[in-house]
Amino acid sequence: MLETHDLRKAFKKKVAVDDVNLYLKEGESVGLLGPNGAGKSTLISMISTLVKPTSGIVTWNGQDIIKQPNHIRPILGVVPQEIALYKELSAYENVKFFGKIYRLRGKKLEEKIQEVLELVGLKDRQKEVVNNYSGGMQRRINLAVALLHEPEILIMDEPTVGIDPQSRNYILEMVKKLNEEKGITVLYTSHYMEEVEKLCDRIYIMDHGKVIATGTKDELTGILSSEETIQLELDQSPQIFKKLLEEQENVLKVTEWEKGLTLIVSKNNRKLAHIFQLAEQEKVSIISVDVKVPSLEDVFLHLTGRRLRD
Amino acid sequence: MFHIFTLQWQRFRRKPLMVLAMIAMTIVFILFIGGANSEPQTMIPVSFSDDIVDSERSGWIDQLNELDGFKFADTEYEQSKERVALGNSSFGVIISEQHYTFLVGTETPNQSIVEQFISSLYWEKEKIDLAVSASGDDEASTKIEKSLKNPPIKVESVIGESEKDFFIFDNQLQALFGMTLFFAIYTIVFSLSEVAEEKQRGSWDRLILSPVRKWQVYLGHLSSAFVIGMAQMIVIFLMFQVLFGFDIGDKWLEILLICAFYTFAIVSLGMLIIGLVNKASQLSAIVPIVAVSMAMLGGAYWPIEIVSNNMVIIAAKAVPITYAMDALKSVTIYGNDLATITQPLVVLFFMGVLCMGIGINLMERR
Ligand SMILES: Nc1ncnc2c1ncn2[C@@H]1O[C@H](COP(=O)(O)OP(=O)(O)OP(=O)(O)O)[C@@H](O)[C@H]1O
Ligand SMILES: [Mg+2]
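Above: query sequence and magnesium ion SMILES. Below: predicted holo C-alpha cells.
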C-alpha cells in the first residue's frame, strides 16, 4: 500500500499541498480531481519521489520512500503532465531510448518496444517524428514510454489534457484495461469529472492544496443525498428571478448556465410548485425543468461554490 | 551516461543547423577580419643588394628565419616593394653588406622586433669578420661560428623593458583564434541548454526515476557539449590550416590540450549560467551578453597586448578566453612548448571546476 501522512509542500509564499493524507491499495484505481492550481501535480511529484516534501512522509508497504526512493522507483510508471519526449526523434527512437535507460537490451528490448507501441495503437506510425504527431498521438507515446519497464503502479498527471475525444477515449479504455486485466495500480489525475467517474474506484477531490472530500463515487454523491439539483430552462435573462430564488428558505444555492439556472434545494418538500408559483408571479416562463441525480460536478460545486473548470 | 551521450548525437544529426551556422559564422568573420590571402602578413620579403653574392643569400634567409613568428622569404626588390605597397606585408627588408634598409608600409610593433634581430645579426657578423681578419686564418670563421652556436656561457638578450612592450601581431592568427573561441561559446552553452529544456519538458523526471544515476545524466550532457565544442574548434583550425593556408604550425598536441581545457571551462561556465537563469528561453538573451563581453575583455576581438586600461587588464584575468588566447599564441606564434602554457591551462582548469561546482549546486537547489 502506498500512503501519505500529512504531506505538505510549501513554495516561498504558497502552500501548494496542505497536509494531505491519502492511500492507494494494490490493484486499485484512484482518481485525483481538482481545478487548475489545486496542487495535484505537486502532490503526485512528491508521491513519485521527484519532489521533496516540506513535511510529512510517503510510505510504500511501510517503508519511507522519501528517504529511500529506490524502494519504489523501479515499479513506478510516471506519465508527466508535459509531453516528456524528444520531439525531433521518432516514436520508435524515443521508446527505444527509454527502454535502454531501463536496461532493456537486444531482443527483449525490441519486443517490449513493439508491445507498448501496439498497446497505444501507434505501431504503424512508429517511424514518424513525434513533432509531426497530433496532440493525441503524442499523449499516447507519452504513456507508452511509462509502460516499458512493466510498472506495478502507474501515476498519470492529466494524461488526456487538450486532446480530441477519440484519443481520449482510447487512453481511458487502455488505462482501464491495464488496471482490470494486468492489475496495475492507477493514480489518475484530472480535472475532467467524467474521466474519473468512469475509471476510478475511489476519488480524492482537491482544492487549494487540501483534500476536501474522498470516497467512492456513490459515497461522494451521497453527500448530496439530502439535496437535489434542479435545472431550469428559462426564456429570458434570469437576474431578478435568481435573486428572488436565493431568498427562498429551501434553496441552498443558485448558479447560472447558458439557458437558465441551476438550483440546489433541500429534499422532501413541495419545492416545484413553489418555484412555478414564483415564476408566474415574476412573469418568467419556464421552458423545461430537470430534476437531476447529483453528479461529482455537483459535489464539487457544493463543497467549493465553484465549478471544476472555472 | 553512454545512452544519454549518444542520444544527444542522434538529436544533433536531426538538427545540426545551430552548430553548422556557428561554424559558418566563424569562417566568415575570420576571413573578413584576418584576410584570406594565402600568405600570412608575417611573411617578410627580403631583397639583397648586389654586393651580396647569390651563394650567401640562402644563409641570410636561414639566419633570419631563426626569429620565431616570422617568415622571411627571398624576394626580388620590385616584388617586395609591391607587396609592401599593397599591404600584403607590413614591411620588407633590404640587406646589403654593410647596412640594412626597411621598406615600410604600415608601422607595426613587429618591425622593431625584426630590426633588433637583424642588427644583432650584423653585430655578430662583424665580430666574426674582425676575428677572421685579425687571425688571418680562413678556417677561423667556421670555428668561431661553431663556438658561437655552442657558447660556454649564453647571454640572452631581452628586448625592450618587458616582453609586453613588444609582441608579434599576427592578424590572421588573432582573428582565427579570437573568432573560434568566441563562437564556440554559443555552441557549447546552447548544447548544454538541453539540460534546462529537459527539466522543463519533464523528460528529466523520467531519467531520474530510471536506474540511471543523476551524475550519469549530467555527465552525458556535459560530455556531449564538450565534444561538440571541441569538434567545432578543431574543424575550424584544420580548415584554415589546410584550405586557407594559415600558419598554425605543427604543435597540434598543445593546441588540442588548450582547446580541451578551454572547452571544459566554457562547459562549466555554461552550467553556471544555466543554473542562474530559470528558463531555457532566457538563455538566448544572456549568452550573447556573456560571450561578447568575455570576447572583448579576453582579447578575442583585438589583441589584449594593446590594451592599456588597468581595469580591463584586471577584468581580463577572470575571463577564460584570455588564457586560451594567450596559450594559443604562445604555442603558435612564439613557438613555445607545453611547459610554457601549463599556467594558463591550470587557470582554465580551476575556473572550470569552480563554475561547475556552483552551477550544479544552483541547478540542484531548485
Ligand atoms: N516550483 C514552484 N514554485 C512555486 N510555486 C509553485 C511551483 N510549482 C507549483 N507551484 C504553485 O503551486 C500550486 C499548485 O500547483 P500544481 O501544479 O500542483 O497544480 P495542479 O493541480 O497540478 O494544476 P494544473 O491543473 O494546472 O496542472 C499553484 O498555485 C502553483 O502556482
Ligand atoms: Mg498539474
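The interface with chain B takes residues 45, 48-50, 73-74, 76, 78, 80-86, 88-89, 93, 97-98, 100-103, 129, 145-146 of chain A (CB under 8 Å).
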